[in-house]
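Encode chain A's predicted structure.
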Amino acid sequence: MMITNKQLVVENLLSSYTEAGEGKPLVLLHGWGCSAGTFKDLQASLSGKFRVVAVDFPGFGRSEEPKEIWGCAEYAHWAQQFLQKMNIQAPVILGHSFGGRIALVLNSRIPVSKLILTGSAGLAAAGSPPKKTPAKYLPGFLKKGILREILIKIAGSDDYKRATPRMREVLKKVIAEDLRPFAEKISIPALLIWGADDKETPLSVGVDFNAAIPASTLEIMAGCGHYAFLENRELFLRLTNKFLEDHD
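Encoded structure for chain A:
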């Protein structure tokens, strides 16, 4: 199946995406530092049954950077506008890592038929600031607690070092957000696929998501890390297709 690369303007930003297949829409949301191309093999495999669209979030791949410091809400708004322009309604959404964060917020804004999260992030750990902590108070809070440690780790990461100054600020804003309230309100079927050896978002995060999302199922892929869909595509597809068939 041929995958085509296309562009359109969304929220005054030149935005890129890839598309393949026909049928019910399935939207792929990539992780931080990645792009639609990360899903190339998965997209090709799923396009036999679905219209599969993979986006380049603003600031990644071939899409323009946002003009301001965006958080999850702004990315979800962009995704909502993108889907409207593409005439995509009630899609299945598959989010990896950062893409999972956006999927959680997007689910609260539009009808989503099913949700698949893999190596997702967004649930605050113990010691993180309360979900309503105003941004201006975060610097004081970060003097202690696990979030400060996370930010220090991020600042030394390759993702942070490779990012532009604006995207570094986006990264810091995004990881400070607690999306647990969005997870707890999910009422649609949700599949969580986690690599047992994931070091970026450990299996304990997947277990936490499983507890937070009422109608969720957690599948663990042995021998896989943060990119389970690349490390064992055959098993990942088997789990995904079974979930989609069982909840058709």
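The chain has two domains: 4-123+179-246, 126-177.
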